[in-house]
Task: inverse folding
């Protein structure tokens, strides 16, 4: 167990394959995470995930910004916002050089276990309707499609809304309440 210096919170570091560590993001990570979001997730869109927005989530007690570190460099990250009834995955990004190694799955597992431990059992997310790789990834984790939202991404691109009940691994019904991103 380690202590998170900025807040005094404790967390467990997860070593995976000896060359990746999962750690809570630090404020100094925010510019790198924003750049990764812009480069790997928000392609073709006006950047919505600025360093200041990510910093807000790092500081917010109901959000977790989790990073995957390889050789001292952030190779991936996820942002989850928790509420009493549901949690919302706001963002997940992996550097392409580190994909297909199970790291995104480890990020999601850590966040899902945290939600489950806190008594938050429903996790929702949106993804670009054109991102078949992400759709397959979330489906393999037990997320189910709840519907499609036209123009969700800056009025340009539709989203697929997905959810999972971490107690059962099943998707949830449409209309579930989600915390604001």
Result:
């Amino acid at each position: 167990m380690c202590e998170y210096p900025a807040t005094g919170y404790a967390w467990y570091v997860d070593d995976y394959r000896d060359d990746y560590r999962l750690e809570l993001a630090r404020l100094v990570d925010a510019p790198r995470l924003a750049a990764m979001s812009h480069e790997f997730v928000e392609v073709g869109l006006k950047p919505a995930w600025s360093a200041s927005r990510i910093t807000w989530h790092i500081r917010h007690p109901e959000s977790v910004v989790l990073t995957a570190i390889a050789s001292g460099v952030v190779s991936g990250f996820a942002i989850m916002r928790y509420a009493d009834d549901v949690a919302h995955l706001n963002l997940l990004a992996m550097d392409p050089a580190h994909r297909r190694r199970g790291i995104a799955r480890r990020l999601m597992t850590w966040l899902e276990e945290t939600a489950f431990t806190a008594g938050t059992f429903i996790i929702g997310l949106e993804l670009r309707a054109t991102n078949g790789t992400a759709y397959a990834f979330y489906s393999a984790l037990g997320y189910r499609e709840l519907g499609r939202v036209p123009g969700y991404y800056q009025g340009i691109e539709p989203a697929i809304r997905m959810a999972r009940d971490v107690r059962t691994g099943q998707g949830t019904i449409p209309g579930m309440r989600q915390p604001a991103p």
The radius of gyration is 15 Å. The chain has four helices and ten strands.
